[in-house]
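User: two proteins, same treatment. go.

Assistant:
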Amino acid sequence: MKMTNRAAAAAETRKKLIENADRLLFEKGYQQMSIVDITKASGVAKGTFYNYFETKEALLLELSKLHLSKLTRQLPQLATVAPQQALHDYMVDYMRVVVESGDNMARQWIRFVVDPKNQQKWQFDLASLEELIQGLVDNHRLAASTPVQRLAELLITDIYGIVFSWCISPTTIDPIQSVVSFCELQLAAILQTYEL
């Protein structure tokens, strides 16, 4: 279906807001980046921002979803393979997205996610893992008794912990290798009760 000129202009404005927020987040950091900064860089009035996003945090959540979109689109396919492989691939690919953004951006991400107002990012990441684990249950790769939410919480906590450790010591922590090691050392034991 062809977009109208108005719809195309609106999509372009939204895209500019997201792209400029991404750049400014890297340059200024989460705390110092304001809505005015984003709208000024995008060439739109401050009020225009609210036509697309309720808050700065809502925009940053959209930015996170955009960065992870390729991975989240793969969830149905991942849910058809062996559970250890599916979770390994998800966790490694998630960490690749983080690493590609760089440790400075990861530090900004940590500042964002630790703010109690920003539970949406945690919820989004948790829901993605829950979707994958539930898919593994639905595809009879994991038992129906699998504690989907608890398992997702455990795994996302490990991912977040690795990101945090990398930000503390970027020269000594290899986040991708840390995820691979976690998967090699822990996933079999975590899943043994539930794998079919």
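Protein 2:
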Amino acid sequence: MTITKDTAVTLRYSLADAVTGKPLDSGLTAYLHGGYESIFPKVEQALEGQAVGHATAVELAIEEAFGPRDESLVTTIPKTDFPPGVKVGGRLQRLGEDGQPRVYNVVKIKGPEVHLDGNHPLAGKALRFACKVTEVRPATAEEIAHRHVHGGHGHHH
């Protein structure tokens, strides 16, 4: 079976910094193919029409990956407003300046201040996404309705 719209695709992947070559992540992932925004569009384009066993590597410019850093998403809060048990490297959700919930990464705790960053940890980086297709199957009606793959290495409800 080839990868076309509404197929569930499982990949073994590795993600590296495109400039330094430093490995950033690797593993298995499953996504719903066909414009559901569950994988980088450039990767989806490279996989269109391919089958199990196909391997490729795609260079992603900053704009094609997680976008540029937005320094307006970097903030500090008083340590007194900080929930107990969260440490550097942890995440917490709070309302952004637009009033919408946003996930912030805790980057530093210094004296009475906690430094938070609402950017994706890989924002501002060009990436190299290498992958090998390990499974292709028709997506279920439920997966198409929910816009993501269920079970296996996909989403679990």
